[in-house]
Amino acid sequence: MILLRLAIRSLFSRRFTVGLTVFAIALSVALFLGVEKVRTGARTSFADTISGTDLIVGARTGGVQLLLYSVFRIGNATNNIGWDSYQQIAARPEVDWIVPISLGDSHRGFRVMGTSAEYFARYRYRGGRSLGFAEGAGLEDLFDTVIGADVARDLGYRIGDPIVVSHGLASFTEHDDKPFRVAGILQKTGTPVDRTVIVSLEAISAIHLDWKDGSKSANPLSADAVRALDLAPDSITAAMLGVKSRMQVFRLQRDINEFGAEPLLAILPGVALQELWQIVGVAESALVGVSAMVVTTALLGMAAMIFAGLNERRREMAIFRSVGARPRVILGMLMLEALLIALAGALLGLVLLYLGLVVARPWVDAAFGLYLPLTAPGRFEASWIGVIVLAGGLVGLFPAIRAYRMSLADGMTVRN
Amino acid sequence: MAASETEATNAILMSGVKFAWSGAPRFGMSIAELAVPAGQTVFLLGESGSGKSTLLSLICGINQPEEGRIEIAGQDIVPMKGAARDRFRAEQIGVIFQMFNLLPYTTALDNILLPLRFAPERRRRCPDGRGEALRLAKALGLPAALVERTQAAALSTGQQQRVAVARALIGQPQLIIADEPTSALDANAQAAFLDLLFEQVQQMGATLLLVSHDIRLAERFDRRLDILDIADVRREAT
Ligand SMILES: Nc1ncnc2c1ncn2[C@@H]1O[C@H](COP(=O)(O)OP(=O)(O)OP(=O)(O)O)[C@@H](O)[C@H]1O
Ligand SMILES: [Mg+2]
């Protein structure tokens, strides 16, 4: 007991250097655990974005790519699905429901998505939750829009506000002859839906009817004139569908993949997500590796600090030896010191992590649509803190062995 | 050796001891014979660098001779294993250094109690360690509040040396080794310090071996030795 008390008091007497070392370890531990939190947060966030959908259908491309652009609005579709093909698939007996998605336009940095009214009923996220309206209701008029929570918050939109859709994702040509009206604002979901402007599929056709080869025609149709026309689309970007029985998924998938009229691709969202993790996994490991290196650096810094202090503590060790402490006790005391520093650093790191989480959570959510759950530290954190403290003790072995040697060489006559 | 009695009455008995420091210039010493009867107070005189501290390290078993016998309270410490020798020192010997005797970052009380951690016998002799530490401190003129609450580093040099005496004496080891304990003190403090040390040592009936190069302190000791008379010192440049 007295040895533990002495170790703590010795550390306290050097509180500035020790404090800095503890802080360095704490930062590295917070970084390390934070990376892991973000990593798992991102995974659950991605996995939570799509649920209840059995197949996603798009033009033939990579499965991951289809998943990314259809569900996460990341990247662009290179090809579309013909409306005929969509209708043929929709007519298959296995299909319980199907929702078309048409992407390509934007509104002030947010993506515009054309879909059918069924989207609101069918889309599920985070273990089966449905979309809910914070204000207003669904699409009724042709030029109605429903906007996600972030769109409303960032742009300060209320029900009834006008919205002008831009052509393409980053262009200055606007569909300003056909303004939309905000009819509904969705509740926050923590998914890309929050950052989407939803319109009807017909509206997408309507604003593009008088366009030719990607530019506005000289004498555009008026918004009212367009209402009278046939607004069935030529093509859509993708479709989400559910089957009546899960047994039929693979057959339907195979049939779609071998579709005669045009090359199509059907993916199971879960499988595509797995593929995505395999790709992202490399970057993730790199990130975890780098943060582990940072922890190692901090621990080596601690060893360096203990090393640097050894010379002026020779006297202290001679005192220990003179009262009968075995050289092994000196070894142990120095390792104990390293353990205590590492423990303090790890615990402070945990505190920093949670402080950081509380502060950064809303921002991370807003900026990246990444919802980081604030769960109490669990097995994972405990075991890593254990590992880091042990590593600290192990690193402390180096200065401890040096002190051991020094105390043997000095004997009772320390000359300083 | 037939007389185990003579062995037991000698606190220190060295014979045929040879020791050399590694490093350059290489310092070596050999002691043909040195016997200190139990209960004696011995003053060991010598120039700086003559090997006084080295001799004390050998007696304490902190350094090991190349050959010879070093008996403390009748037990030869040379053949002992390291751990046994450390334990033996913890039990039998109280050490006072020249200066910087204390762990600066903790209280005087912790410093006084430290040897008990390594010496179960001494601990058994004073079950109430704290009470005994305070009693010793009081006898040495240190107020309890100072001992319990002040960091050792904040004490004056004289106070620190008295704390060091209390640490050497706690649990009543039978041999007290002091390496120039007064050299950091002024003349008045030196006298007062020696008075207190002698009083306690004699109360305990312990043996005292005190090293100094200040001959003026010598007269109150039972016996005065010059290192050059007992040790053969050699210096080689290697
Ligand atoms: N730890 C050590 N390693 C190597 N050589 C040492 C060591 N300690 C002492 N010596 C050598 O032993 C010789 C005697 O030193 P020692 O400390 O025993 O003398 P001393 O009589 O106690 O001197 P002082 O009065 O200055 O304390 C010195 O020449 C020194 O070089
Ligand atoms: Mg000396």
Automatic annotation (TrEMBL), chain A:
Keywords: Cell membrane, Membrane, Transmembrane, Transmembrane helix. It holds the Pfam family FtsX. It comes from the Bacteria. It is found in: Cell membrane. Residues 290-407 form the ABC3 transporter permease C-terminal domain. Residues 19-205 form the MacB-like periplasmic core domain. It is a multi-pass membrane protein. GO terms for cellular component: plasma membrane. Its main location: membrane. The chain crosses the membrane at residues 286-310, 331-364, 384-404. This is Putative ABC transport system permease protein. It comes from Aliiruegeria lutimaris.
TrEMBL record, chain B:
This is Putative ABC transport system ATP-binding protein. PROSITE patterns: ABC_TRANSPORTER_2, SIGMA54_INTERACT_1. SMART domains: AAA. One of its GO terms (cellular component) is plasma membrane. Keywords: ATP-binding, Nucleotide-binding, Transport. Residues 12-238 form the ABC transporter domain. CDD domains: ABC_MJ0796_LolCDE_FtsE. Signal peptide: none annotated. It comes from the Bacteria. It holds the Pfam family ABC_tran. It comes from Aliiruegeria lutimaris. GO terms for molecular function: ATP binding; ATP hydrolysis activity; transmembrane transporter activity.
